[in-house]
Predict the structure.
Amino acid sequence: MTHRFCGRAKDFRASLAMVLLVVLPAVAIAQDSPRQWADSTGRFKITGTLVEVVDGNAMIRDAAGKTLKIPVSRLSKADQEFLEGSENPFVMVEDSSASSARDRSAEQTVDGIGDALWATPQSVDWDSAELFVPLAGVQWQVPESVGPLDFEPKRTPLLKKTSFHENVHPLAINTRCRRAAVGYSVSFAVPKAQTRLSLVDLVSGRAIHTDPVEAHMRPLALLDNGSSVLMVGCSDDRGGYEKKTELQLWRFDGKRIVRSASWVPYAKDRDRGREDAEVLAAEVLDSRRVLTISDKGHVVLWDLAHRTPLWHSRLSERNFAMQLSVDRKLLALFDEKTLMVLNPETAEIFGSTALPQNTQTGWCRVAWSPSGKRILFTSISDIRVMDVESGQWLFEFSLPGGPVATRALSYPDEDFVLLDKRLLVDLRSKIQVCEYRDAGQIETIGGTSFIAIHSGNGGLLAPGKFPHPAAEQMLETALNDPRLFLLHPGVAVAIDVSAIRSEHQQVARTGLEQSAAQAGYEVAPTSPIKIVGSISGPKQEAVSYIAAGAYIVNQYTSSVKLDWNGKTLWSTSQTNVPGMLMTKRGQTMQEALDDAGKKPNTAMFSNVHFPKFMQKPSDSQPAGRRSNALMQSQFTLQGLVDSK
């Protein structure tokens, strides 16, 4: 059974304001003059003024002020040649209701969206949009999508840093127009915040670099016209510039940027209507519709021309993620503990599955594989890969060291994941293969990774593939000789539960033995590698649940670590406080928490996912820079430089 809510489509021309982006005749004197138009048969004729050409239709206003529509393909040959005759057909004109004294330089439009329209205050009517409700357990019937890119991108020179504090923002890549927008901002140690953009033609390898703009914004998405960028502010309340709640449309006019007015799409949408919500990400669906998600998990499909929502959904306020497939036919959406695949136009659920109830989630991200046949999901230290056809998990494991993808996630190869723009992991062996360094940004689409390098010596946007040949060779060598690892299947480990109270020691030992066996370890009491279990508490802590208030609970913390020669190689911990609280009939929340607080969480010892492979840590590495990868590789303007 599917769960479907259909969005309402409205004709954007119905409320188009005074400023229009239109295709006009080549002869300047005829721009605002009536002329006779005829259809291809010559039977039907009309005298009127061209208003606009949009979606293949000519909009003509007659003497009575009525606007008529005719497909360009059905106009006479002379009229079609008239429309196609201009070298630069995009000309700004003024509607007849506007004052002729209006300054035309202020009447720019961006992709048909008038600046005057965006400058008009407008509150969002959420009741006019279809409400999508996330639902787990929908039968998995996900259609196929096309994953790989259909073009070969080229390397493109970018701008070099203007100062040490200038940063390059996440890339905005549009595969329809085959272009990318690269943004750079500096707001520290400068008199005024400055933002620059580079518009990159990915096929030709050419770029337009704009002059600095006094603003503090970053690209969210590049629209399908290839020259308009949806921007979001980067400042906070103290920054004095555009906030993270504000959107603008920027259009390239050579090296000059034409900016729209600001718009706050999530006005009074957080903290129970007391504050505006921030815009985290955006996905372009087509030339007029854009998906956005706020920092409170509010997903919206917008008719951008009118700033109206078509459908929306309020997800969990903390644990959510979304990504559109390369062909834009499928939307991967995660909400708290449920992974769904939707039709992005209608919000129809093609399939959904829930994680186990006791799974903790945080720092959630999703990504499509190069083929479009797999979905990658990361949360805290967990990595999972879903087969899109069957809806079954192909890989499920955890990596040591805490959250794995707090900043970025890429799926560059069916069998590899790139975490936080730096760590490449083999999904089959769970081996951390290579740590890549000094990339300003990395964005992966359809198996092609776009690497932005931004330095004082220069800049570069280069396509690449992960893993690179040297990393593949290193992985093959390591798999053929497990002795290169300190931890590997068959390694001997000792188990130490002396820090656990006697009544829980046997349960903890048995559980850790089971977890060690699942990782392929062999238990030997004399091994220098020790699995150390401990339980601390109880300690009274305040906990809260969404829409349920705050409570006091006796909290125990169960911890496990791997020690070697006095060094901690890896650690993990869980409490006895349930992430989702289930109450019995007639039981209050506080009573259920009192029951949970009576004993520690000993079940976690039998569910520990130990790393199967881990290199021996090097004493020469500085604190905080220790990597378990087999090798390191540095991005430079000349190429990759490898080290082992």
Summary: The radius of gyration is 29 Å. Residues 1-32, 86-110, 620-626 have pLDDT under 50 and may be disordered. The first strand starts at residue 19 and ends at 23. The first helix runs from residue 77 to 84.
